[in-house]
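Re: the request from the purification team.
They wanted to know what the chain is likely to look like in 3D before they choose a buffer screen. I agreed to run a prediction and write the result into the notebook, where they can find it.
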Amino acid sequence: LLLCGFGLPIPEDITLITGGLMSYYGKADVYVMIAVGLLGVMLGDGAMFLIGKRYGYRVFEWKWMAKIMHAERVEVVKHRLQHHGNKVIFSARFMPGLRSLVFLSAGALGIPFRAFFLYDGLAALISVPAIVYSCYFFGDQIHHAVEVIRSVENGILIVIGLGILYFV
């Protein structure tokens, strides 16, 4: 979860889902999974915020950041954080892919850490238990979900194969 906070291209939700399923199968305690999930999420988010705070606007000059956060986008994020900072931070928790960029930007743009931690923490207190508990309570449905995914994958492969045959 900490590495996901740093932008590792694995959604942290998958880790939380795994924790919920481990609880469902009796390999872990659901409350421990929620606590570990909250700790990992907050550490990762806090790390991104502190990197932004430490390096400031120079963060947006880094090669990988410049591709994602060009000057126009930085101005949009800056404007939104300045006018709706708390709501943006709270909402970012529910936006995979944008989450770490918003948190990095919040640090770089000087949002107070207390405000960041409060609003991100409130959102995490909703999202983390919701994901872990959902998988814990509905773990018996995972086999059905896997079957549906497999049938969809097969359908996609068939369509791709037909498309290739058509063009060949």
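For the purification team: Helices lie at 2-5, 12-24, 30-55, 63-68, 71-92, 99-108, 113-137, 142-167.
Please add any questions underneath this entry.
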